[in-house]
Write a structure and sequence with these properties.
This protein is α+β, with helices and mostly antiparallel strands. It is built from four helices and four strands; from the N terminus they run E-H-H-E-E-H-E-H. Strands 2-3-1-4 form a four-stranded antiparallel sheet. Helix 2 runs antiparallel to helix 3. The chain is elongated, with a radius of gyration of 16 Å.
Length: 102
């Protein structure tokens, strides 16, 4: 499974309906990913420019895109999702791309 990071902002509609539907929608987002073969690894709720940073696992980019579209279509969030690699994978990529240090 590949790792993805989503930066999420609540829409005005999302904020206005947070009290009544916030927890329910958060669960729907998680279930949408699961239905596509993905997994919500962790979600961090934040202060600042983004309201949520979510870490996901999906089989591929197309599946991650489907999940992002499904979840954004609920109308309560704007979402930007990007593939990510962990530190060890990054080091390996650097070595492959730039050559190993001797």
């Amino acid at each position: 499974m590949q790792t993805y990071v989503s930066l999420v902002k609540f829409t005005q509609h999302g904020l206005q309906t947070m009290k009544d539907r916030g927890v329910e929608r958060a669960e729907m987002v998680k279930q949408n990913a699961k239905a596509l073969g993905g997994k919500l690894v962790q979600a961090y709720y934040c202060l600042g420019e983004y309201d949520v940073v979510a870490i996901w696992e999906f089989p591929d980019n197309k599946t991650a895109m489907k999940a992002a579209v499904m979840n954004a279509s609920l109308g309560h969030i704007q979402i930007s999702t990007m593939p990510a690699v962990n530190r060890e994978e990054w080091k390996s990529l650097l070595q492959q791309a730039l050559g190993k240090k001797k």
